[in-house]
Amino acid sequence: MLIANDPQLARHGGAWNSAKEKVLNDVTIEKPVLEPTGALSVETVLSVRHWNEHLFSFRITRPASFRFRSGEFVMIGLQGDNGKPLLRAYSVASPAWDEELEFLSIKVPDGPLTSKLQLIQPGDQVYLGRKPTGTLVTDALLPGKRLFMLSTGTGLAPFLSLSRDPDVYEFYEQVVIVHSVRRVSDLAFRDELKGKWAEDPLVSEQAPAQFHYVPTVTREPFEGNTSRIDALVESGALFEGIPGAARFDPETDRIMMCGSMEMIKQFAAYFEEQGFTEGSNAAPGQFVIERAFVG
């Protein structure tokens, strides 16, 4: 054992420190310094939260000039192996009023971006696109009484943003997030959603009366719903505890969908059969999907 005031250590301190410094330098991984471009700013990672082995969320700094509507997406990325920005579209999970930006991501071991992005730590740099866009916004929907946000997996992200936006509670009497996942640990932000954003500074008064969280876990035991979203609609379980009809009504209900392509295509066809019209920023309708993600 080496003691701080050991004479022997003092005599050889210089050599010991040099050796220590060499070891630290040998194991330090140099991370590239990112440079902003006309289309991309460079932001700093503030925090990272790993939900399980294939799901994580992270918060980054927000430029003073960055404006977006709750529910929109933006390009996020790192430097690729070729030295150029490697980018992917990510929905912003934080509301438009937040001073920071939050994102929810899967971890893909061999994914060109996510294999690197899942390793980020506070203090690291990431690219942020300067122009957010998207159709999962209230502007793309006609006025209604109930807003249903149907999601699978990381498709929850834009709805985290919308459910914390006070304007949404002015537009709709009931605000509902339905989140379908395979495992319980995939229910990211479960406590916050179950608590109806009780700690949120802007919606903590409206959300307890207007917000509803409907999680469902399809491949593990769960104390709540364990069926897919379509089965919950058919049985009426999706509407339990929510004021209004135990079915979707094009006169009063507005729908947003984000997640698996299978779910979106299935429900888009279903809603059209029920008399709903798809909306866009140019022509608001009764349901919307994010075309940029599903093609």
Automatic annotation (TrEMBL):
Pfam families: FAD_binding_6, NAD_binding_1
Source superkingdom: Bacteria
Stored PROSITE patterns: FAD_FR (PS51384)
A biological process term (GO) from this entry: cellular response to oxidative stress
Known EC number: 1.18.1.2
Ribonucleoprotein recorded as keyword: no
Residue span, FAD-binding FR-type domain: 38-139
Catalytic activity: 2 reduced [2Fe-2S]-[ferredoxin] + NADP(+) + H(+) = 2 oxidized [2Fe-2S]-[ferredoxin] + NADPH
Cofactor: FAD
Gene Ontology terms for molecular function: ferredoxin-NADP+ reductase activity; nucleotide binding
Enzyme type, top EC level: oxidoreductase
Record keywords, A-Z: FAD, Flavoprotein, NADP, Nucleotide-binding, Oxidoreductase
Family: Belongs to the ferredoxin--NADP reductase type 1 family.
Name this protein carries in UniProt: ferredoxin--NADP(+) reductase
Organism: Sphingobium ummariense RL-3
